[in-house]
Design a protein that fits this description.
67% of the residues lie in helices and 0% in strands. With 126 residues, the chain is an all-alpha fold. It has one domain. The longest helix is centred in the last third of the chain and has 16 residues.
């Protein structure tokens, strides 16, 4: 099912989330010269497109890989990905919801791959 998953998530919201994470950990919040514009452009272009959930999670993962901020890129985009899924997660049994939420965060952060995400998302298809 395709939706405008990122419609209500302007880039400025992403910046605010990262700033909050950095402030909490007393880390420098600053855009990087190499990845900030790449990630911002990818993100803003995706906001106007209907995407599948998987495509949306892939955009979160790619933005993380661009490292648009000095710190907490993985945490920033994983938090967004997990938040986007809240309506879906509430419809699942608690253990499945917890597992899928965790897998999505790890996928976006790059600590697990496509195969694991696909297996976890199989419960959504059933």
């Amino acid at each position: 099912m395709k939706r405008l998953w990122l419609k209500d998530w302007p880039w400025q919201t992403v910046v605010v989330i990262n700033a909050g994470l950095c402030k909490e950990k007393q880390a420098l919040h600053k855009p990087t010269s190499a990845g900030h514009e790449l990630a911002r452009n990818l993100w803003e272009d995706a906001r106007d497109r209907e995407l599948t959930l998987r495509e949306t999670l892939d955009i979160c993962r790619q933005c993380h890989k661009f490292a648009p901020f000095c710190f907490y890129n993985g945490n920033t985009f994983a938090a967004i990905g997990r938040t986007l899924m809240q309506d879906i997660l509430h419809k699942l049994p608690p253990v499945e919801a917890h597992t899928l939420r965790s897998v999505v965060g790890h996928y976006i952060a790059g600590t697990i791959g496509s195969k694991e995400l696909k297996a976890a998302m199989k419960s959504l298809e059933e």
